[in-house]
User: Which sequence fits this backbone?
């Protein structure tokens, strides 16, 4: 393996490891912080509904709060695994840092020889694959993208892999969700407009 290929391989593997670390931290944050945030928001909305009974979308807000309550019940199932997610995030962060160090060491090596790095690289891979938590909390993947690109030092990965914002930093599932919501809104607006027009000619 030549130097350029090795650097690109390290960057790709660094992305996988860093994303895995942030996905575990995201699950940990969602389990521990989201119920408190949602509880406060629900209480605030409930108070507003009592104070202003005729506010628009009152019924829709109530339905939304019910769905949020169901989501919290779903998250509660993962409560016992919170420490596992945190510990796995810490473990993967250490491997990520070692991968980054190996990347810069190889990059600065003017007499690069893959054999000098092969054992260390394979050890990193073995550590990475030695343990994994496959079942993550819902939406942790979206949160992990934010944590990876805005809370972690990943400029070396972005530069090596030439990552673009919309193509690489925004999750595909989030793009699909936003597009679906946009289409639904357009359909609702069109339906409301058509209903109003028909009402004018009656």
Assistant:
């Amino acid at each position: 393996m030549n130097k350029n290929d090795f650097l690109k391989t390290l960057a790709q593997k660094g992305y996988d490891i860093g994303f895995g670390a942030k996905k575990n931290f995201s699950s940990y944050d969602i389990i521990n912080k989201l119920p408190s945030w949602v509880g406060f928001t629900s209480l605030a909305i409930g108070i507003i509904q009592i104070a202003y009974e005729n506010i628009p979308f009152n019924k829709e807000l109530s339905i939304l709060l019910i769905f949020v309550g169901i989501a919290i019940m779903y998250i509660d199932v993962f409560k016992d695994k919170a420490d596992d997610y945190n510990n796995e995030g810490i473990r993967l962060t250490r491997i990520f840092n070692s991968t980054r160090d190996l990347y810069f060491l190889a990059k600065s090596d003017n007499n690069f020889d893959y054999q000098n790095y092969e054992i260390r690289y394979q050890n990193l891979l073995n550590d990475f694959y030695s343990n994994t938590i496959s079942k993550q909390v819902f939406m942790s993947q979206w949160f992990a993208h934010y944590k990876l690109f805005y809370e972690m030092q990943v400029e070396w990965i972005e530069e090596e892999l030439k990552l673009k914002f919309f193509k690489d930093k925004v999750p595909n599932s989030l793009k699909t969700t936003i597009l679906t919501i946009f289409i639904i809104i357009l359909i609702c607006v069109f339906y409301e407009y058509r209903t109003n027009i028909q009402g004018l000619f009656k």
Observations:
- Residues 3-51 form the longest helix (49 residues).
- The CA atoms of residues 10 and 103 lie 6 Å apart.
- Residues 171-202 form one domain.
- The chain has eight helices and no strands.
